[in-house]
Design brief:
This protein has helices spanning about 35-40, 100-110, 120-125, 135-145, 150-160, 160-180, 200-220, 235-245, 290-300, 320-325, 370-385, 400-420, 425-445, 450-460, and strands at about 10-15, 20-30, 40-45, 55-60, 70-80, 90-95, 115, 225-230, 265-270, 270-280, 305-310, 335-340, 360. It is α/β, with parallel strands linked by helices. It has three domains: about 10-130, Gyrase A, domain 2; about 145-220 and about 400-445, Four Helix Bundle (Hemerythrin (Met), subunit A), CATH 1.20.120; about 225-385, P-loop containing nucleotide triphosphate hydrolases (Rossmann fold, 3-Layer(aba) Sandwich). A seven-stranded mixed β-sheet has the order 3-4-5-6-2-1-7. The two termini are about 20 Å apart. It binds guanosine-5'-triphosphate and magnesium ion. Guanosine-5'-triphosphate binds near residues 280 and 339.
Length: about 475
């Protein structure tokens, strides 16, 4: 449970559907007065029964001051603590008219509700212990998911399985600390001396490492695969980039050195999000403007999950092509032989510079020849990155949590090194190091977290969620 006390909150209200014309607009209220406020403005049709928990009721929304009927719609009461926020929640589904919804909102405020701030419903859910921070962040990631795989990843984090794994690590550490501290007062020769904590510490460290790896997998699912199109100038990188997007996005000219800066666009492929980046061509002896462009290209390659190395498949490769491939060492690469409409030089000419392990495709970005095959190969590669068999889509730590997990692993890693160097570590030293790891872990799930961090997290939300 979070440390924050739920100090008799007021009742908040917001439009939960996007502003603008729509079929239906939903207004949501949460707090102790939400039901009373609803009853002042909502007249159920028929008047046979009052509002019942979780039963939608059709009726009219009336301005209690003027008696004007503003709209008709469905009201739904969800009593706390079984609701999203843990408080009494009311949802009013009305016609999606911005004017009507705005008027009703104003009336609800006049009746005592306060306009909600960003993410305040979810923040209340967190403060009420209905969900932890990992889940709260999954809510916003689900809403903002750029593609189906990202949505599945966020949905998986909404289940508590990831939170439970983190709590398990935390509980194990606390357990080891408790055992160590129980023995601090015994001297070393004592028959009750603490058992060697090293095997347990090593095991917990392994679990933490697994969670980190899962986080990286989560990142490619959640944020997309950083896919960089790289090559020497004029090989057709921008033409290929545009062809993959199906849009004339990057400038193409016959002159080498056209692309000076990175260009970013998003592509959904087989459900996965591909963050495609076109780059400045890498060449020897660049001019001063190109130097900066190439520096940016290199930074993109260094952070890439996948590099599409574009070569001119119609001409013999040269030192510059070899240099591009050298810079991609350590990255996952796909080789694209472009301009095959101009006639392809024998593959053997590329043997010395191109790795046989990387997938290779011949295309003409200009005519579109081979693009379907390229998309298929790309989709397979993307799938192998996002779903290493037999792993089902599961949630991974996001960036905030990864940093905290890394911070938690530092003292433990240090302790393991000490164990390796010197078999006997005083229990008070070991417990001190382990305690340093527990703090960041409890910040991941929000067991201990300050308001500033909560503000930053819920700032990402929209009003009404
Ligand atoms: N024949 C043929 N020409 C192509 C093909 N792809 C690109 N081109 C031409 O090659 C020239 C360079 O294309 P770009 O896409 O600008 O090349 P780039 O690799 O982005 O070049 P820089 O941005 O300068 O590094 C243009 O004249 C394109 O029309 C292709 O598949 N076949
Ligand atoms: Mg270009």
């Amino acid at each position: 449970m979070p440390l924050h006390a739920n100090k008799s909150p007021d009742t908040i209200v917001a439009l939960s559907t996007p502003p603008g014309y729509s079929g239906i607009g939903v207004i949501r209220m949460s707090g102790p007065d939400s039901r009373a406020i609803l009853e002042r403005v909502f007249q159920p049709a028929g008047m046979r029964r009052g509002m019942r928990n979780r039963k939608g009721l059709y009726g009219k929304v009336v301005d209690p001051e003027s008696g004007t009927v503003l709209d008709d719609g469905i009201a739904l009461v969800m009593e706390g603590p079984g609701s999203y926020t843990g408080e009494d929640v009311v949802e009013l589904s009305l016609h999606g008219s911005p004017v009507v919804l705005d008027t009703v909102l104003q009336i609800l405020v006049r009746q005592g509700a306060r306009p909600a701030t960003r993410g305040e419903f979810t923040r209340r859910a967190f403060l009420a212990g209905k969900l932890d921070l990992v889940q709260a962040e999954a809510v916003i990631d689900l809403i903002e998911a750029p593609g189906p795989l990202a949505a599945q990843e966020a949905r998986a984090r909404l289940d508590r399985s990831l939170s439970e794994r983190i709590e398990e690590v935390s509980a194990t550490l606390k357990d080891i600390v408790a055992r160590l501290e129980a023995h601090i007062d015994f001297d070393e020769d004592d028959e009750h001396a603490a058992p060697d904590p090293e095997p347990d510490v090593r095991l917990v460290f392994e679990h933490m490492r697994e969670l980190l790896e899962l986080g990286d997998l989560g990142r490619v699912r959640r944020e997309g695969i950083r896919t960089v199109v790289a090559g020497k100038p004029n090989v057709g990188k921008s033409t290929l980039f545009n062809a993959l997007l199906g849009a004339d996005r990057a400038i193409v000219t016959p002159f080498a050195g056209t692309t000076r800066d990175t260009v970013h666009e998003r592509l959904i492929l087989g459900g996965a999000t591909v963050n495609l980046c076109d780059t400045a061509g890498i060449r020897e002896n660049p001019d001063p403007i190109e130097i900066e462009g190439i520096r940016r290209t290199e930074a993109q390659i260094a952070a890439a999950d996948l590099v599409l190395v574009v070569l001119d498949g119609s001409s013999v490769p040269d030192r510059e092509d070899a240099a591009v491939l050298t810079r991609c060492k350590g990255r996952r690469v796909m080789t694209v032989f472009n301009k095959i409409d101009l006639g392809a030089v024998p593959e053997s000419m590329f043997r010395d510079i191109v790795s046989a392990d990387a997938p290779q495709v011949g295309v003409s970005a200009m005519t579109g020849d081979g693009l379907d095959a390229l998309r298929r190969t790309l989709a397979q590669t993307v799938q192998s990155i996002t779903s290493p068999a037999p792993d089902p889509p599961s949630g991974g730590l996001n960036r905030r949590c990864l940093l905290l997990m890394e911070a938690a692993m530092i003292p433990i890693g240090q302790l393991l090194e000490d164990f390796a160097r010197d078999a006997v570590i005083a229990p008070e030293i070991a417990s001190l190091e382990l305690r340093r790891a527990i703090g960041p872990l409890s910040e991941i799930t929000g067991e201990r977290v300050d308001d500033g961090i909560l503000d930053r997290i819920f700032e990402r939300f929209c009003v009404g969620k």
